[in-house]
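Standup notes
- DV: blocked on the single-chain target, sequence here:
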Amino acid sequence: MPRPKPEDIGSAGQDSFLDVVTNIVGILIILVMVIGGRVQQIVLGPSQPAAGTAAIEKAIEDLDETVASTENEIDQLQEQARTVATAAAFAADARIQLATAVSAAKVSIDRWKQASDATKVAAAEAVARRRQLEEEIRTCTLEAEGLAHVPATTKEVLAYPTPIGRTVNGEEIHFRLAGGRIAYIPLEELFELAKSHTQRQGSSIAQLANRVETVGPEQGFTLDYVIEAKIDQARGQVLIRSREWVVRPQQAASGETADEALGSGSRFRRALSGAKPETTVTLWCYPDSFPEYRRLREELHRLGIPSAGRPMPEGAPIGGSTEGSKSVVQ
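- DV (later): unblocked, structure below
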């Protein structure tokens, strides 16, 4: 097949394009004619007498009535809306009042609960107290029944005469009560040793005065004393005496127990054996030995020997001075 020439190809393309344009123009003419026919029908339609004019007027009247009815309903709805708004306002006020009432009721309920709890606590305490009292009554009843079956016993009660104090001016026998033990204080013996010691010194009165001297031990005690020289111008004499003195035990737990002291042949009994009717027994008692003090006092009362008590603070030494007080016997 022979190959076409270039110029033949160009002429064929132009013919096809013209055919397409011609077809489009024809289609457009046909569309314009169709549209024109329809427009003519629409425009010419109302010029003819309409058969449904009465029906349209009736429809318009119906529409007017419907509009009027609708406006009436709208007015009614607006009135109802105002009524609902008023009711809502009243409801809001009522809700506030109800909330206030509820809050007040809650407060009242809380107070009632608190009062109820307090009442329950008081009732529980009363029940516990009643049970405690019942238990105490039961215990006392059992004790009373037990005591009713116990044979009667007689107990000796020491009755002391009404105490009338008098100052001790005669002889004294001294005992130390400490740590539950009773020890005899050889005070007279220690004073004799001090007198002998002073006489053996052979020093001048100025050297002896205001000097602390110590003698002992004697039966477990030592004596510290200070000498004082006093001139009696009326008699032309010089008096030498102890201005202050302190008795110290060599051992803190020295002496006898109360049972040992009250037994026969004890040092306590031997010390009392030389007591005269006017002799007073002085008991230097520390806080830890008051039970032993009572037992010794009862024994001295039974023996008819006057006694004098000297309560001592814990740790204080036994001593005296020219400015101190004397024992008081009852």
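- Follow-up: The mean pLDDT is 77.
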